Structure formats: structure tokens, C-alpha cells
Amino acid sequence: MDNYILAEINEFSQRENGYLALFCVRLGNFCVKADPQAMLPATIRLESAEYNFEDVAEATRPNDYTFDVTPKNENSLKAIIQGVAEVHPEFKVSVKIKEYDGGIKERHIIYTMPEVNKERRDLLNDTCKTFHKECVAKLEWAYDKRLADTAQLLTRIPIQDADNARKVFEKTYNDAKENAEKLLNAKLQEIEEGYQRYLAGKDNTWENSYKDDTEVDVSSLI
Q: What confidence category does residue 149 fall into, taking pLDDT thresholds of 50, 70 and 90?
């Protein structure tokens, strides 16, 4: 197949995957469970400089609904709380102290995912479906544009090569749409599971041995 066509196919595949990746990130930011990628958009401001979340903190997931965040430097604790609150004001946050042998104490920021009541379920479902429609529209636009941009070129190469190229473009587009549908359905199922958990009276509180830190007033930081 013509090298130019191969380059067009590769570029088209990258573009479709880019739209899928954006859709995936947008879904990940609607946290029913504690999705690790939810922290990626957070910008932490320290001494007039900006840092990514992973530069200044480490996060673990003691259960599906909780982040246990340890600042790499305790002096950045307040900045971390503020930075995460800018992108996830819905997270429930508290500061706790973990004590080790020898009297060593370590501050942890505990983020708990909000419960999925009916109002939140409906909002999440509607928003996810809207983002899905936007993603599919972009996939379709990129597909139509690629066919239009390569139309003349495809008439100048062997018929079999041209047909194969069109089939590859179509398959790439259809696969992308199918993957977008899978991402949406997985998120809608996660939302429904959260709602059923709420109806069953289960909360997202994480039982732990940490002590509440009374020196940090979280409400003044968010």
C-alpha cells in the first residue's frame, strides 16, 4: 500500500484514539469509585510554582471508595487539599494522623467518594451520555474528513489498495465507536452499582486506626 496512505491511516488511528482517551479521562473524573486517574488534573501550587499531584503526594486506595493520600513533604499538605478541591469539590476530605513506633507521626489526607443518591445518579448518567455523544460526533467528523481528504488520492492508486484503505478507515472508525460505547456502559454500570449501594444503606466511610488531626481546619482550605 502507498506509504502516504499508510501514514494517513496511522494518523487517523491516532486521532480516533485521542478522542477516546479524552472521553475516558472525562468519565474517570466522575468518581463513583476512587479512580486513580481522578487526581491527574489536580495542580498543586507551592511557592509560586505549579506541580502535578504525583510530584508532591502518593495515593493508595484502601478500598474502592477511598483515597489515602500521603504528602511527600508535610508542608505541602494544605496546598494539596486546595489543589484537589479545585477539580473535585465533591470529595469528602479529612486529615488524620498515623502513629508509628517511636512516636513518629505522619499526616494523611483521606478522600471519600460521595454517595450516589438518585439526584447524583441522574446527573452523572445524563452528563456521561452527553460526553459520549460529543465523543462519537468527533469520531464521525474525523472519519468523514479523512475520507474527503484522501478521496482524490485513492483514485490514483490501484483499486484494490484503495478499497483496502477505505476498509481500514471504516474499521478504525467502527472500532472506536464500539470502544466508546463500552466505556460508557461500564461507567453507567458503575454509577448504578453506586446507587444500589446507596439504596442498601451502605456508606463509603473507611474504618481505620488513624486519629483525627484537630490542628488542620479543612473547611478553611476549600
A: confident
CB 21 within 8 A of CB 135: no
Tens-digit pLDDT profile for residues 25-56: 999 889 999 988 889 889 999 988 999 999 99
SS3 category, 212: strand
Q: Give the cell for residue 28.
A: 474517570
What nine digits make up the cell of 52?
502535578
Residue 67 cell numbers, joined: 483515597
| Residue owning grid cell 479529612 | 94
Share of residues in the chain with pLDDT > 70 (%): 99
- Terminal alpha carbon distance of the chain: 57
State the cell numbers at 212.
Answer: 483525627
Question: What is the spatial distance between Cα 80 and Cα 66, in angstroms, rounded to a whole number?
Answer: 16
User: Grid coordinates representing 12?
Assistant: 487517523
Rounded to two decimals, the pTM is 0.84
Distance of CA 95 to the CA centre of its chain: 24
Q: What tens digit of pLDDT does each residue of 188-210 get?
A: 999 999 999 999 999 888 888 89
Enter the C-alpha cell of residue 215. 490542628
User: What cell numbers appear for 17 in the block?
Assistant: 484514539
C-alpha 8/C-alpha 165 separation (Å) is: 9
Rounded CA-CA distance 100/97 in Å is 10
Q: Are strands 105-112 and 92-99 parallel, antiparallel or unpaired?
A: antiparallel
Distance of CA 160 to the CA centre of its chain: 41
Task: Count each helix (H run) and each strand (E run) in the chain, helices first.
Answer: 5, 7
